[in-house]
Amino acid sequence: MELIAEGLTKRYGDVPALTGVSLHAGPGVLAVLGPNGSGKTTLLRILATALRPDAGRASFAGRDYASDPRPLRRRIGYLPQEIDLPGHLTPRGFLHYVARLKGIQPEPQADMLLQDLGLGDLANRPLRTLSGGQARLVALAQALLGRPRLLILDEPLTGLDTTERARVLRIIAGPPGERVVVLSSHVPADIEAGAAAVLVLQQGTVRAQGTIDTVRALAAGQVHEVTIPTADLEDTLRICQVSQMTLHADHALLRVVGPLPPGLTGVPVTPTLEDAYLWVQAIPPHPQPLSHKGRGEEDRRRLATDA
User: How far is CA 207 from CA 57, 93, 219, 248, 287, in A?
Assistant: First the structure.
């Protein structure tokens, strides 16, 4: 059970959205990271069969996307970036409606999903009365209906607090080996503990891909903790890339990513995924397709960069 994409390319008019994106994912969570406009949504729409690429190919479990997509869609759960929920329906009513569209029995799955996602007490309230985060969880529940083998989720953790994000990520991942999950995020810390691998997109191209440890290692030797007087903070932020900052009365503790400028000293520290995410976006592009297969399995290829 593998998701394979090779050379996916998509343009909107003269604007390239994706250029030669390749990936290889087995069971587990592959997180697609990138800033707004990096091509995350375009990639996920292609993988969900909602959009055709201009070039390249993709397949899941041996079935090519270029053939009839209908059998594939029955195996895919998809959460788009934006989804309009019918405000007059309740979460339970909406999930029952979606289940009928999918040709599956809503019970007991619908109620179990609502309970697991912390929505059990809201199951019979109109959707229009829910908060943005609660509505997003209902939208996620519809993607999980039917226990799909491939989950494509665009920003599923948006609007959730820290505790909710960790719990929801565990639900998304499911039991080991059960499904392939591709989700997007622009916040590395959200997925660092729950993803098996990460793919970093920038301007429609792959900047890094591999296990979490592999990608973190790309920033080895490039992250320092620096202590500076508060009076120097503004100038330092102007010339340094900072992933974390702690302010005190008379000084600031900064986590600086990249070479330290002359006159600034710091203590080398182990990179986090956030550090590596900033680093690979700052260095000159050196794209190379990589693979991710399962939780904890090492990538068969590693990114080569001139650091």
Answer: 20, 42, 13, 35, 5
Contact (CB, 8 A) for 60 and 180: yes
Angle (deg, nearest 10), helices 132-144 and 91-102: 30
Confidence check: pLDDT of 214 > 60: yes
Buried-state track 79-102, b at ≥16 Cβ within 10 A, e below 16: bbeeeebeeebbbbbbbbebbeeb
Measure the CA–CA gap between 20 and 9, rounded to whole angstroms. Answer: 5
Work out the number of other CB atoms within 10 angstroms of the CB of residue 252: 19
Looking at the DSSP bridge assignments, the partners of residue 32 are 184, 199
pLDDT digit string, tens, across residues 2-23: 999 999 999 999 999 999 999 9
pTM value > 0.70 = yes
pLDDT digits (tens, 9 = 90+) for 262-294: 999 999 999 999 999 999 998 866 544 444 444
The yes-or-no verdict on residue 297 having pLDDT over 60 is: no
Q: Could you give the 3-state DSSP secondary structure of residue 126?
A: coil
Please work out, in degrees rounded to the nearest 5, the angle formed at the alpha carbon of residue 25 by the alpha carbons of 179 and 106. Answer: 20
Starting at the earlier edge strand, list the strands of the sheet with 223-229. Answer: 241-247, 251-257, 223-229, 267-268
